[in-house]
Amino acid sequence: MNQQCGIVVKYFASLKEKLGRSEDYFTLTRSMTVSDVWAQLNPELTPPEQLKVAVNLDYVSWDWVVNPGDEVAFFPPVTGG
Amino acid sequence: MNQQCGIVVKYFASLKEKLGRSEDYFTLTRSMTVSDVWAQLNPELTPPEQLKVAVNLDYVSWDWVVNPGDEVAFFPPVTGG
Amino acid sequence: MITIVQETFNPWDALQTYQQQMELRVLRTLGATNVFVGSMRDFNQEVQVERMVLEYYPGMTEKQLGMITAQANEQWSLIDSLIIHRVGEVFPTDVLVLVAVWSAHRADAFEACRFLMEALKSQAPFWKKECVAGQQARWVAENTVGYKHY
Amino acid sequence: MITIVQETFNPWDALQTYQQQMELRVLRTLGATNVFVGSMRDFNQEVQVERMVLEYYPGMTEKQLGMITAQANEQWSLIDSLIIHRVGEVFPTDVLVLVAVWSAHRADAFEACRFLMEALKSQAPFWKKECVAGQQARWVAENTVGYKHY
User: Fold this and answer.
1) Hey, which of B6, B33, C55, D121 would disulfide with A81, CB 3.0 to 4.6 Å?
2) How much is the pTM?
3) What ipTM was assigned to the predicted interfaces of this complex?
4) Domain locations along chain C
């Protein structure tokens, strides 16, 4: 896989445990939103309503278009502090 | 002076310096409000508008009636903290 | 606890010491602590303040601080609180006041601590006299209101 | 300064150390410090929590904390701020988070500290998993809103 054409997808906390994995590598073959990325990688699971998504360490909405080289992350509401 | 019939009047901070004294002892000969007490002890000085008054360690208004044995205090707005 | 102190104090040491005296069963219920520390700046209204003298009204000051603490306990769900106020001669960087509030949840600690500070500044009989470089010492006229942003 | 720590820390020691490194010319401008300390209680929603595991998102967590600190600096007049957040395995009475804000005047310190805590709790990627006596470990679902009284 050419890293430049791929994206890294990370999962955290309860989502990571539910999916049983913490990271996916994925090669973009067409223009995709984060919503498309989720559907491609987790077709069996409708994303929980509260699920958050970040691209390159910033929060984005589900219609955000990803680019090759991006780091995408899905995670439940944060509970720190 | 019989302590039981008298009141102690205290002055603090800038008021104490202005008056040049920190305490007066005063024998009540009739029913008096704190306003009367001030007028009796400091006839030459109209009390500054912002001046605070306390009787027995609690804030009171200027029409509060004093009793023998009371501790009356006059002081400028507080500036602690 | 409410204390009036004549000597310089270190707020972090004071908090350490105070919290060390709490029982473990109390410590295990603490979720939130909010602390305010007020210290002496060397400038006030454009003039350089070299030192200050803090006067108070022994008896009334403690009573008023006790009353505002009781009010805070009525209004919020608090586990403990600590007020330490300095009096006497103070110099720049000296701590003037420490207010600390312990509670289970953060809203109570934040709000009660701020309430205590504002109430202290408007009710507790303390007066500051500033000694300004090259000028006669002057009494601070009045405290500012602290809730300016609301 | 923003720090993520893996080990137990004492908030009052941390503040002492941090403030000791400030320059005297900075210390002389400080009028107000507001500190929030969040610690682990042994009860949450009626069940006894024996320990917790705090997960975070290395990189994003620091970035988000940096962004909220920048926002606080835009909105209030601050001299310095410090955020320390614990991750990994924690036990009752352990400190989870410390937020400290230094300013010239108290309203800025109070408001910025509270803003930072609320922003941290809603934006910074940390997740708590509670290990409850006699039950399976469970992820905390969502943080409460802290401004309940306003």
Assistant:
1) D121
2) 0.94
3) 0.93
4) 2-139
